[in-house]
Amino acid sequence: MAASPQMNGEVAISAEHLVRRFGNFTAVNDVSFRVEKGEIFGFLGPNGSGKTTVIKMLTGLLPLSAGDAHVEGLDVRTDSESVRERIGYMSQNFSLYYDLTVAEAQWPGTLSESLGCATFRRLEAAPRSRLRHVA
């Protein structure tokens, strides 16, 4: 695949031999990939294939059972707080507090604050006419 003009070979995310176990169950088994800065990357797969688990591992929300992962050069094992300051994650179904406003969702102690997610702060500044609720 040819590199797009925006891609310059700098690594934004690297994952090497990621494994996540829950007891005797292996949810993620030997997953490796690399995402360059400027590249658009997505996970496709059926329910239960480990997509969300990998994302939670990359954001430091779930510890790695094995393997190595870096986001913008930061080790997700040792620098998870710094990683969360640089990455935003919103699950497809935000199951906590459906009636929260954007401002309430970023209030200290809520999910967005614990993730260090700047996405909510950017959304709060957006004109209400540009925002819509998707259920």
What descriptors fit this protein?
single chain; 135 residues; alpha+beta; Rossmann fold; 2 domains; 4 strands; 24% strand; globular
Describe this protein's structure.
Helix content is 24%, strand content 24%. The protein is α+β, with helices and mostly antiparallel strands. The protein has 2 domains: 10-87, P-loop containing nucleotide triphosphate hydrolases (Rossmann fold, 3-Layer(aba) Sandwich); 95-135, no CATH class.
Quick description:
The chain is an alpha+beta fold and 135 residues long. It has helices at 51-58, 80-86, 102-105, 111-115, 118-125; strands spanning 11-22, 25-36, 66-71, 74-75.
> Rough shape?
globular
Strand content: 15-25%
- Based on CA atoms alone, the radius of gyration comes out at 16 Å
Compressed to H and E, one letter per element, the order equals EEHEEHHHH
Q: Could you state the CATH homologous superfamily of the largest domain? A: P-loop containing nucleotide triphosphate hydrolases
Question: What's the overall average pLDDT, rounded?
Answer: 76
Main sheet summary: 4 strands, antiparallel
Give the helix proportion (percent range): 10-25%
- What gap, in angstroms, lies between the N and C termini? 36 Å
Task: Map the helices and strands.
Elements: E1 11-22, E2 25-36, H1 51-58, E3 66-71, E4 74-75, H2 80-86, H3 102-105, H4 111-115, H5 118-125
Antiparallel strand pairs: 1-2, 1-3, 3-4
